[in-house]
Structures
1.
Amino acid sequence: MKTPIILVNYKIYNEISGSRGLELAKICQEVSKKTGVNIAIAPQMIDLFYIAEKISIPVFSQHVDNIKPGSGTGKTTLEGIRATKAVGTLINHSENRLKIADIENIVTKCKELGLISVVCTNNLAVSKAVAMFNPDFIAVEPPELIGGDISVTDADPDIVKNTVKVIRDISPKTKVLCGAGVKNGKDIKKAIELGAEGVLLASGVTKAKNPREVLEDLAKGAI
Amino acid sequence: MKTPIILVNYKIYNEISGSRGLELAKICQEVSKKTGVNIAIAPQMIDLFYIAEKISIPVFSQHVDNIKPGSGTGKTTLEGIRATKAVGTLINHSENRLKIADIENIVTKCKELGLISVVCTNNLAVSKAVAMFNPDFIAVEPPELIGGDISVTDADPDIVKNTVKVIRDISPKTKVLCGAGVKNGKDIKKAIELGAEGVLLASGVTKAKNPREVLEDLAKGAI
Amino acid sequence: MKTPIILVNYKIYNEISGSRGLELAKICQEVSKKTGVNIAIAPQMIDLFYIAEKISIPVFSQHVDNIKPGSGTGKTTLEGIRATKAVGTLINHSENRLKIADIENIVTKCKELGLISVVCTNNLAVSKAVAMFNPDFIAVEPPELIGGDISVTDADPDIVKNTVKVIRDISPKTKVLCGAGVKNGKDIKKAIELGAEGVLLASGVTKAKNPREVLEDLAKGAI
Amino acid sequence: MKTPIILVNYKIYNEISGSRGLELAKICQEVSKKTGVNIAIAPQMIDLFYIAEKISIPVFSQHVDNIKPGSGTGKTTLEGIRATKAVGTLINHSENRLKIADIENIVTKCKELGLISVVCTNNLAVSKAVAMFNPDFIAVEPPELIGGDISVTDADPDIVKNTVKVIRDISPKTKVLCGAGVKNGKDIKKAIELGAEGVLLASGVTKAKNPREVLEDLAKGAI
């Protein structure tokens, strides 16, 4: 996965449901092509395959259950995600926290299946713990800043810098993203200066009046 | 929703992930057209929109969360389901049980949004309780028979007959489906004789060597 | 269980942990004896047996899991509750909602074990559903009023009156309590006028500067 | 906390509910005094304070929620546990797994409150992750061996040896316990030879015909 990366989490906003989710995906794809910056998306669960089959930028699942194919009505497996052509999955997002044994098992299975694991964490200690599983990405997001107006890169630059530093020691191949309040090119530029290899963001793009402009500004900051 | 109905729950079997889920959906559609029997499907969550946009038989979500559009990474809203053109959702499946206040709220919201609610229950008492919410369908499935070899219509015909009877008194517009072990035309014929307006089944179709044959046999039983 | 009843839910407030929980229990007992009004308590889970063995007014568990004795580290069984001499349990409190099949199973098992079931509900529809299980008590508490300053008896008297009315038709032996914002004798008097047989309250007593005074006022309202 | 330690998890077996739980606690205490080996217990949640006030050997909670004192009917706080005179708590038992952020927060808060944290883990990778939080104890229990007849020390001695080794590097002050299938003095002797500082066990004691004999045999193995 080429970095720096801008990973857009659609969450379950009205603004991205149905055909609007696909429209936003196409805008992400166009801006990515135009700027050369890697932009990835995590659409609503029920739109995953619908969108993944129609675009060529990387698509992630927002969530996965630690469950094998079989029974499990309403659940989602890594095998199912892979079959949609999605490239990986968010794991343990603050809105969908997982048990530690489940995170470990999912990250391990991602490696077997060739899927990219992006484990979300809330602080330095949890990032260090998760680093023991050697995921592809750790996305650190202080919960108190999620959905807020101040970017983590301004509100708590140390958490980004320190996460990058300690993860490098524990799991050198794991890349660090940061998130929470990230909204523009300035924020992502700062994130990269702090050592992150990209950002995870949501409302800054999905609820923007003009998502294309926001994405172009973000991409500019990432170059 | 025309009845009798054969509602095929895909669960998360390997046999229905990726493009194979769409193939099975097309077979269901063909058998439905050929026989005139209403066949509906509940695909994997992540395949919902992908499949729903490509076929014309009724598509249901396997699950929904009692959550509003907005934050909620990895969750599923009724609004999101409606935007995929799915016609409704399973609620409270035995593999994804819900809290009672959530069931009530989801059923109420289904009515507002014009979605069909299919609430799964495990016994007569719970069916009676759920009937108070006036869902479109109650699908009674004794948990000990789910995934087994003996159809609920043979193993416990009384639960079907009694559920039909008591639901008629409490909520006359609610239709009763039955499930657990249902596998062939004989089973669905018996279900209809017992007063049910259809069946909910999974492995009998999804894991069949020849799903078309199984579906045609089921449809024959439903006529 | 004699009614009207004042059922004091200790929740997990600092004010009632350790020996202070027992002190409050003794005050409840003294006021009950003095006034002749039935006052019951639901202490912290970990204090249940400690308090139950030392007082003679009715003690309830705050919660129970739908699980059999055996494995289940950290869980609570009805059999375990009964062995502490507690007389029953709250079920499905708004801070600890249960799945519908679990509520049904717990209420049924309460009858077998001779324990008193107090099922909490959030609105009229859920109360009607729960009435199908014929619990001993239904305690209706509109969630938006819990912990607030305005008593449900003032903010939404109709929900109390209507719950009493519909429950009487469905399950004549089930008694109705109301809760949320209940704080003084005036509130409980109103509750009884609306047809309730008592109140469920928490912070109004547990966080009171002088719990004895509050309890005496409540008891006065209940006479 | 003196080691080696024999930590008896009561779970929710019928054999330890009510007064029988106290009886077993007294036997543990007598054997501990007689042999000089540290024996600790984790009683049923609802019996915690009842037992803790009556005995002097260390008492642990079986579980704790990551929640502050206040609202939270049916939950358990560290503050509440401390007020019962219990010395600490099991965290993340295989029958009550926690989210990773909750484990981190609970372990951190245990240190602030002077409580002993015993975090249960299922394999080497999860043990390493948890070691990042520097708990007082890590109790590794391969889930497939829990409740079985073969002790982890025979079935998988390497997991014990390797856990001890890696934890020593990551968090030198964290002590390792092992569990699953542990039943007699021979098992605990082997555990100590493998580097563990004690065992966590349940049915081997709680369901024994003669718990005193079993405990004496265990204590002998620990000397």
2.
Amino acid sequence: MRPVIAIDAMGGDRAPHEIVAGALAARDAVGVDVLLVGDDAAVRAELPGGEPPAGVSLLATTEVIAMHEDPAAAVRAKRDSSIVRAAEVVRDGRAHAFVGAGNTGATMAAALLRFGRIRGAARPAIAVPIPIAGSARRQLLVDGGATVDPQPEWLVQWAHLGRAYARLRLGVENPTVGLLSNGEEAGKGDALRKAAYARFEAEVPEFVGNVEGRDLSRVAADVIVTDGFTGNVALKTIEGAMMGIAGLVFSVLDEPDFAEISGPIKLRLLEAASDLLPDNTGGALLLGVQGVCVISHGSSSANAIVNAVRVAAACVEADVVESLAGSLRRAAV
Amino acid sequence: MRPVIAIDAMGGDRAPHEIVAGALAARDAVGVDVLLVGDDAAVRAELPGGEPPAGVSLLATTEVIAMHEDPAAAVRAKRDSSIVRAAEVVRDGRAHAFVGAGNTGATMAAALLRFGRIRGAARPAIAVPIPIAGSARRQLLVDGGATVDPQPEWLVQWAHLGRAYARLRLGVENPTVGLLSNGEEAGKGDALRKAAYARFEAEVPEFVGNVEGRDLSRVAADVIVTDGFTGNVALKTIEGAMMGIAGLVFSVLDEPDFAEISGPIKLRLLEAASDLLPDNTGGALLLGVQGVCVISHGSSSANAIVNAVRVAAACVEADVVESLAGSLRRAAV
């Protein structure tokens, strides 16, 4: 049976056009059935002939949660929104996974509220794959922004969940874990990190110790654990720094001295950097909830949706939710 | 009278060679007297003829605090270390400012313990100038790593101190302030940020609201306030991301297709990026202590020391410590 992936057709800056195009492409490229969740007229306008083709179905909803709405309030108030309904069809067994590129907080909140938590999971965390320039390796940053102000023991849980997920996502048998801190030495960190460090040493397999901000951009550990506040700041800091440097490089290449010869260099740079683009990293999995929810970035193109659906389908086929639940049972944290 | 700048000659990965060379160069380039603090033989070995020339003096010390020693313990134990003695000569009025590129935590701890705090300052913070690619503008990140686990009211103090310093360092009459958070909206943030936001709105002039990680790399606010843990992670994250992209770009330019034509492009890129290098940003000022302490990065070259001495001399001449103290008196926080 082909997995059924529910896709929030209204989510993201480029919805519904790119989302629906991505869903149709993913149906063939990944080999899934897709359930488009969104405004009936808006989605049909993107479908050839206005009708869902084979392998595609449509769940009409009447509300949309905008990108900057307060997540918790919006999920409570807009019960017929595409985000809430997409989470519900997974809960109800009509789809196997939920892919969304809309309001990240609302997508996480809907998944948490509709799926519920896996047994023993205190709070959810989002596992964001970070590319490394010039390397095929990825690192998973956990938590990329689901839960701020965590307790130390939640970080321990995220380490276990992150390792279980890294086996599937990174194909690593025995994933290593680093704790993001303000120095490599064991004594470094704020109160949260110091408390977590002692527990990581005692409880987390393959713990390599503290890692630093610069380790986010080089091979340091398969799973890098942090609180959702720091994780969000770090991810956006990487994005900003990369954009800044990229802008500088391209402005130099466009200078009169180089403009005539730099065309092929620019093309090659774009190709070499393509692995670093958020469209190509494949979406982030929400860890700790009783279902598969893959979050793609807010400006997702059709290609980003294909990659996110690929991740979601792999999670369904590997029964990743059971693997994650098992990791917490065995660790008994 | 020329300001006297005490320089930790033993501090940094490239000490004492680059530090002493930088001190000698700064004497002429900045117009200061320098007091080299460090091991007598090691420092003399770097001086022409083994003797301090005019405008240079030497304070011999017998201990060195290594880069990765525990700061507080090392400052307590090594009373005749170059870091501790360099702070003491400023406290005792034999020098006007302390410049160090060694163990950052120990440098800050020595300055805090020997200088004391300015009246009303709860905790120190370090103001790190962040360059913006393609712009002459700088932003000051406060705190870059002096104080983890701050109270919300300390962030308010750092905003006032940061604004007072930005007037001198950035030459901005009415500096704007942003609060680093995990989203732009007022409701975003962890408990610390939410508590701080309300106080910033009420008490901090020119508060522009929350800024995000990507705003560290583009013009967002003159002063960006955060806790020392997040600040340290963000600074090292920027460094890592920039190095990653730079490595990717240069590896493409070295590919066989481009190697013959890319020489001038590489030179121009290095020139265009030179403002982004830590050697050229000029050192970070420790805010909240009763004296001038400028911290240069750990791999400082002679040029980095010249730039740090320039910042220190400007701080002395503008009586920045009194300006900072005045900002807290007026704000009465």
